[in-house]
């Protein structure tokens, strides 16, 4: 958690953070999943920039879990990407074991970003 705290300080006083997707994934890879709840509770808004389609399933699942927590806490989300939400996850991911998670994430992204 301290890595995240150092990276986003200050939170502009309003709990809003802007971060590049690749940098966010680096942080998520080092934050225990249990701490994503605390992370989401710290934020009122998150802007993700440079979001690209996922090629790595572990990175995609970390992202899905983060979106779940942001949704649970009602954190507003902005995503800057040249890719549509429907194209973030490869077709092979969306038809395999975690298909339901990816579809839920797409739905939640649409809701959070509106």
Strand and helix map with partners:
Elements (H helix, E strand, L loop, with lengths): L1 H7 L7 E5 H10 L5 H7 L2 E5 L7 H17 L2 E4 L11 H4 L4 H14 L2
Parallel strand pairs: 1-2, 2-3
Characterize this entry briefly:
The chain is α/β, with parallel strands linked by helices and 114 residues long. It has helices at residues 2-8, 21-30, 36-42, 57-73, 91-94, 99-112, and strands at 16-20, 45-49, 76-79. The longest helix is centred in the middle third of the chain and has 17 residues, at 57-73.
> Helix/strand-derived class?
alpha/beta
Instruction: Give me the side-by-side strand order of the main sheet.
Output: 1-2-3
List unreliable stretches of 5+ residues.
1-10
C-alpha-based Rg, rounded? 13 Å
User: Describe the biggest sheet?
Assistant: 3 strands, parallel
User: Which fold name fills CATH's third level, the topology?
Assistant: Rossmann fold
- Which CATH top level class fits? Alpha Beta
Distance from N terminus to C terminus (CA atoms, Å) equals 29 Å
Overall number of strands: 3
Number of domains: 1
Give me the strand/helix succession.
HEHHEHEHH
CATH architecture: 3-Layer(aba) Sandwich
Q: Enumerate how many helices there are, as a single number.
A: 6
Shape: globular
Helix percentage range? 40-55%
């Amino acid at each position: 958690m301290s890595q995240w705290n150092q990276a986003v300080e200050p939170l502009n006083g309003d709990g809003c953070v802007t971060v590049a997707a690749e940098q966010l994934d680096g942080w998520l890879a080092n934050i225990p999943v249990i701490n994503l709840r605390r992370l989401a509770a710290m934020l009122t808004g998150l802007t993700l920039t440079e979001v690209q389609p996922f090629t790595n399933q572990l990175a995609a699942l970390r992202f899905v879990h983060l979106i779940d927590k942001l949704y649970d806490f009602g954190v507003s989300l902005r995503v800057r990407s040249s890719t549509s939400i429907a194209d973030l996850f490869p077709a092979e991911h969306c038809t395999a074991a975690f298909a339901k998670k990816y579809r839920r994430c797409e739905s939640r992204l649409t809701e959070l970003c509106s």
